[in-house]
Amino acid sequence: MSGFKLYRSRIILALSSQAYKRAHKFSSQTSTEPEFVDQPLNKQIKLNDQSFIKIQQNEQKTSNPPTQNIETQRINQNLQKTETNPIQTKEKQENSAIKIPLQNNNSINHNNSQTQKASNQNTTIDKDIVIQASKHEQKKELPLFNGQNKLQPNNSSLQIQQQQQVKQNGHQMEQMNKAVKKEIKYFKACGLHNIGNTCYFNSALQCIINTPKFNDKFLSDEIKQELNPKHKQVALQYWRLLKQMRTTNNTSENPVQLKQAISSSTKKFGGHRQEDSQEFLRALLTCLHEDLNRVTGKPIYKELTADLNKQSLEDISNTWFNYFKGRDNSLVTDYFTGQLLSRVTCSVCKNQSLAFDNFQDLSLAFPNISGNQITLEDMLKYYLSEESINQYTCGKCRQQRKCTRQLEIWRLPDILVIHLKRFYYKGPMKKKINIDIKFGAKLDLGQFIINSSDKSTLNCNYNLYGIVKHYGDLNFGHYFAECKHPFTMKWYQLNDSSVQEIKPKVSYESDNSAYLLLYSRI
User: Fold this and answer.
1) Whole-number Å distance between alpha carbons of 154 and 136
2) Angle between helices 233-247 and 156-183 (to 10 degrees)
3) Distances from the Cα of 471 to the Cαs of 303, 343, 433, in angstroms?
4) 416-420-422 Cα angle (round to 5)
5) CB 299 within 8 Å of CB 326
6) Whole-angstrom distance, CA of residue 380 vs CA of residue 388
7) Backbone dihedral region of 295: left (phi > 0), alpha (psi from -120 to 50 degrees) or beta?
8) What are phi and psi of 304, to 5 degrees?
9) What distance separates the 2 farthest-apart alpha carbons in the chain?
10) With left for phi above 0 and alpha for psi between -120 and 50, is residue 23 left, alpha or beta?
11) Which H helix or E strand runs over 24?
12) For residue range 409-446, what is the model confidence (pLDDT) as tens digits?
């Protein structure tokens, strides 16, 4: 019996060594690059589109010695019966079809001395077979964004494992973002496929894609902690598209996944109808804001009052702004939100009703002019000028009176979006206003700051970085964008998939196609 034991030990040792080498070769070829996806993150083994992986357990045929007796054959049969079978499981992943092979109850390492089946047949392991990395390390998967959706551990050991996993996820995200930033120096302007009357979509999206500073924050590690657990799809798809456009060698990318995510949230933009670019821009920013809102439980809404007998304008402004920030606070509001003061004066008792309202764009109407050209400053003055209101209920008279209303800029955002209201609707009549607009590459809003002493108004200078233009009429029109690249500082015309470098302008003297203007604070 001692001779047989020695012979069997040599066979088992040879088989274990061959299995380990092949499994080690397989594991060294796998990739664990993390994805910014809406699903749990764990170490993943990619199979490189192979349907299965063969581990040759015994390449050389081994025949039993002729002296082997009946007792030896019985022992070998018992060993085959007691061999551990792998457990097959399928883990469904939302955005990936990759299945993770792990071995049950055995880790593949050079110290594996457990008895394995001595056979002259090859063993085939399918994708569905699970290879457990360690029999003591079956950990629950953690979501990538768990800052506001923390799992409750059953014990301290699990909590430590979760914290380690979160730290590892953060490190992987940091490494990936560094890799993205490293590739940015090769990044050129990238177009967007038109997937069916989506020029309105592409033009507005290009302006946000080329917004300076905002997207650097969007790619930072902080963003994973701010993702709202209830709303996340638009932010996830925007992140993917942004990363893809910053690192691709292609001249254009397909935004279909982002459009589907926005369409599921805002039904208006489903299908393939031509829509308004300014309305889509508002919807995009609203969806991103909801996905990134740091406030998960909004306080009960309440009506705010403004009494100059009790507070100064500065105190009232802060009270209102902080109240809105307590309900809506995100990366979008950090960059795009300003504040307007509205004064409504009763024509009888001269009582003033005050209100502070936040804005994400300024919609400027065209004043009645005799010529065919107007400046952007003229449109801003008209927007902030006094207007008459009929049948307004005065807060002091408690009756409907004729009143006047005037707006005043109180807080300035870092990103200023200006909407030029070229599309005119009044009853059954609708038309496009083709008046030329004169505007510059620089904009100083200091002349429009009258009473505000807010710190955001200390710097009123802006640089133009994005334009959405519209050609044609209300029935047959086309949108495209002109944007300043945030890294190369070159200007490009972005017309769906077409990308063409253009010369920068100091001033736009007569432009009758500009529809949206985007400025960033200097």
Assistant:
1) 16
2) 40
3) 43, 37, 11
4) 165
5) yes
6) 17
7) beta
8) -100, 150
9) 120
10) alpha
11) helix 2-28
12) 999 999 999 999 999 888 788 889 999 999 999 999 99
CA proximity to 29, closest of 64, 2, 5, 53: 53
The conformation of residue 204, written as its DSSP 8-state character, comes to: H
Q: Where are the alpha helices (DSSP H) in 38-155?
A: 70-81
**Active-site option among 199, 394, 403, 483:** 199
Amino acid making up residue 202: N
**What's the burial of 247, exposed, middle or buried (CB within 10 Å: 0-12/13-18/19+)?**
middle
The residue from 193, 231, 460, 478 that is catalytic is 478
**Catalytic residue status for 24:** no
Degrees to nearest 5, angle at CA 115 with 114 and 121: 130
Residue 478 is a catalytic residue: yes
- C-alpha dist (Å) from residue 176 to 79, 146, 220, 226, 300: 48, 19, 10, 18, 40
Nearest to 494 by CA among 255, 309, 146: 255
Beta-bridge partners for 507:
440
Tokens of 475: 């029935």
Q: What distance in Å separates the CA atoms of residue 394 and residue 469, rounded to the nearest whole number?
A: 41
What is the token pair recorded at 250? 């292609």
For residue 518 the two structure tokens come to 């985007």
* 71 vs 480: which has the higher pLDDT: 480
Which stretches within 248-391 are classed as H helix? Answer: 256-265, 277-292, 313-325, 331-336, 376-383
Number of alpha carbons in the 13 Å side-chain half-sphere of residue 60: 6
Contacts of 494 (CB under 8 A, 6+ apart): 189, 191, 192, 202, 203, 206, 480, 481, 482, 483
Those residues with Cβ within 8 angstroms of residue 184's Cβ, 6 or more apart along the chain or in another chain: 246, 247, 487
Q: What angle do CA 465, 471, 477 make, to 5 degrees?
A: 120
Amino acid at position 4, single letter: F
CA distance 310 to 299: 24
Give the span between the Cα atoms of 290 and 281, in whole angstroms: 14
Would you state the structure tokens that stand for residue 503, as one six-digit string?
A: 């010369």
pLDDT 10s digits, 63-101: 444 444 454 455 445 444 444 443 333 334 433 333 333
| Structure-token match 């890294």, residue found | 487
Q: pLDDT for 99-127, tens place per residue?
A: 333 333 333 334 444 434 433 333 333 33
Give all domains of the chain, ordered by start, each with its CATH number. 1-138 (no CATH), 199-521 (3.90.70.10)
Number of Cβ within 10 Å of residue 400's Cβ equals: 11
Of the chain, the end-to-end C-alpha distance in Å amounts to 88
Please name the amino acid found at residue 375: T
